[in-house]
User: What shape does this take?
Amino acid sequence: MTAMAEPEVGRARVRKEDERLITGRTRWTDNIALPGLVHMAFLRSPTAHARITAMDTSAAKEMPGVIAVYTGDDLDPGGEVGMPNAWPITPDQKTPRRPMLAQGTVNFAGEAVAVVIARSAAEAEDALAEIDVDYDDLPVVLGVDDAVADGAPLVHEDMGTNKSAEWIFDSAEAGSGGDVQQAISSSEVVVTRRFRQQRLVPAFMEPRSVVVDPTAPQLTMWSATQVPHILKTMVAMTLGLPEHQVRVIAPDVGGGFGGKLAVTPEECAAVVVAQKLGKPVKWTESRSETMVSAHHGRDQMQDITISASRDGTITGLKVDLLADMGAYLGIVGGGVPVLGAFMFNAIYKVPAYRFSCTTVFTNTTLTDAYRGAGRPEATFAIERIMDELAAELGMDPMELREKNWIKHDEFPYTTVSTLTYDSGNYEAATAKAMQLFDYDGLRREQRERRERGDRVQLGIGISTFTEMCGLAPSRVLGSLDYGAGGWEHAAIRMLPTGKVEVVTGASPHGQGHETAWSQIVADQLGVGFDDIEILHGDTQSSHKGLDTYGSRSLTVGGIAVVKAAEKVIAKARKVAAHLMEASEDDLEFADGKFTVRGTDTSTAIQDVALAVFAAHDLPEGVEPTLDSEAVFDPENFSFPHGTHLCATEVDTETGRVRLRSYVCVDDIGKVINPLIVEGQMHGGLAQGIAQALFEEAVYDEFGTLTSGTFADYLLPSAMDLPSFTTDRTETAATSNPLGVKGVGEAGTIASTPAVVNSVVDAVRHHGVNDIEMPLSPMRVWRAVHEGDAAAGGPGAEAGGGLGSIDSAHGGAQ
Amino acid sequence: MIPAPFDYVAPSTVDEAVRALADAGEDAKVLAGGQSLLPVLRMRLAAPTTVVDLGKIGELKGVRDEGDAVVIGAMSTHYDVQRDPLVHDHALLLARATDTVADPQVRHRGTFGGSLAHADPAGDLLAPALALDAEMVIQGTGGRRTASAAEFFQDFFTTSLAPEDILVEVRIPKHTGWSAHYEKFNRVAQAWSMVAVAATVRAEGGTITEARIGLTNMASIPVRATAVEQALVGRSADAETIRAAAEHAAEGTSPTVDGNADVEYRQHLARVLTGRAVEAAMAG
Assistant: This one.
């Protein structure tokens, strides 16, 4: 056979992980059973803010099967242990200590106050009711506006303020643009809006679970986490354990979406309890616990002002955020809204930009990373206000975007927020999307429905998004005061039988790394897809890594795999030359074979691996191994982009929104596996659409989460979503050798504003210029029938711009 | 999500079940499919001492023809009801409403009697039972008795069943040849009804001769839209008549307020959806 093998990269392979994940025949943390294993259950505060005046655990200790009951003071008598915040966004950031179990006060409903350890999970659960806690209620702080008001009660009294930090970027100071105030005051058109990013629950499928085995000198922790490497280091630092005696294993993990990018009080308490008792312990949470105690996402108030000249050229952009952190800072914490700072200017050429963000404490569950982390919020605000600006100008919203976006021949382009976009082609993605969507036909139907006063109005929403992903160049993270680098590690082990083990520091929890990495390595080394095994998630086998979040696995971890493969080939080349008695320079490597150029003498890489294993005849000075490792630190972020178009039908009698069609054309660079990409897009779209229409974590005035079950926290199913039309353009990233950009967050980031823009567009002629998310039927109906002022949203109070265009014509040309 | 401990009994006859309930006292719960009870137990919102499972009582399952009525065993699953030809021919409204209950898994587990006895005002089968004048056959320690749907539903999650009573079967007077539609309004496909309208009508030559309309989730119990029924009967079924009649739909309702809807919006929906339900029923 001389024909080139079909490349693996680009093949729509079914994932090799699917069978075990879909049937559940695999190792989840909760499946792990160890001899002598005991079970933990946490008692959680029912109240959002209170002083704990007394706690009596004596009755609980007498319950059947109970081994021990501990309070915060039992686990940490000195009150010294606090969960880590790895991203202090300013030097003077206020960072309250977040204990394992509440000590003195509880600061949100759901905070753990005691832990029961029993022979069985059921006995542990039963004993919780026997713990007697006296709470002395304190005033509850809810909502960022109220939290920063003068005289507001304080979440953490000792800090003297509810503000954690204020982070500012100003293009005039950075030298990347003009003075925004000047730009706004001298512009012909100014549009201001206040958007609310409601709070969301990450809602991963597998609840969190942890097992700790302290019965050997090296402590082992299994956890349903997306960050086993970070967890190992952080647990060691947080609890003062010697890091070399801690092993963390993330077995198969059922989803995370950022919700498992955490170092939790429960994980740390499990370590302390296991050490105290000398027994292995397990904790698996209930869904109700997830809802109140796992971190939430989003929750920002966004004040945004855009200015432009009458012809639609953007002149300035000003953003002021209040970001609700909840009661404490998580591991990324205030870094989430700061990540958004670089994305408000999006794909547009903005000459002047100022961003400020104040991070605020309230008596709620903490917020942290959730799919997109900062970028969906930014994308929503800019894409929403672009539509409002278009309406103000009486321009077609796509025409306005086109006027302002970076042209394909202007890359690389350094933006007003100082990022350098390496590549992109917004024109191409948009042209394809417009054609697939039948933009003109839908605009025509929209006009007809309006003219005949149809009960069902049609709207068209646009989102031309980009994102920064592939987190991240370590030097950039350093400049932002992030606590770690952004490199990734990979290693390749060539086994004597010709099989290959690939070790990755990325930590999959549903993404399909095993399949994608196998495809990459198969092409690099010329070995069979099925001859490759991917090892991950165990700090003993994968000793080095920074895990999976921020669409970083492929663009950073995948490149590390390529670099490791290159080293394997370089080592093998020396040996192959020696075995064939040829010069290294005369060897060609293709399809897994070294061939002496111009001859048919060749040797397969598997034969080289066996020869190296035997080590009987190696060239002078060559170590008997082909195994190689590499650490890749990217020079730049990657910048996927795309054009998303959404058509909705709005029933003006009931307010119900039906998605009529959804087209997205994404440019994520080179594609390794189109099927995985398709899956990521569909899931991402569902999640972003759900923010627009369905999901919201709601607190009542007492700080109780009222949407604490999936009966109230609405997640869509396939029944609620249209058939998506997905397509791609392919503009290779220039920042990495594979040309890849990342796809994990694209759908979520892009879709939310497309949907909301579409609904607003459908009813704009009713005088509506905003509706608060999620766009429940009641909110939409109210917006239509009572005008925007009564739509129930903060957007209602925000004024329009200075223009005088009849809103009935906005966006409907 | 682990229930508190409880005793479990699974009697094989109705008599045994009634005795088991009487023996267990006030703190017993009946398991009739478990699609509502199990979440409640797992969240520890209820902690019964005894759970009496009716799943092994054969006499509670199945649909039969009893002359002027269709009789549905209380432990017939939603799936059984949905596909039963007797229900389809003589109580189409119930079949249509059952089609909308939750998802296939729930419809294979949950039971008709269990839903009625649970008496969640957002449940989809209460309003059809009321609209169709269903009669509940109840067995207690004092033998069998019947209750009309109007007597049976008393308040939120409250029926005329005494603690030791079992709902045995439901007799539905035949509505042969009536057209029907269940207009359900919810935010996602698998959520409870915010408001729903159960409408079944009989028409002759374009004139509505009889109409029965029940409303879901417009009060603590299912509500009959009597004023709408009266405004429809004897009229020609044109769009204008239907719209005008539907304007009466919210009369006498007292819906709850939650995050999805306030009173004004629920009452508005009741009017709009009633019009649509009648129109759809007329369209067949």
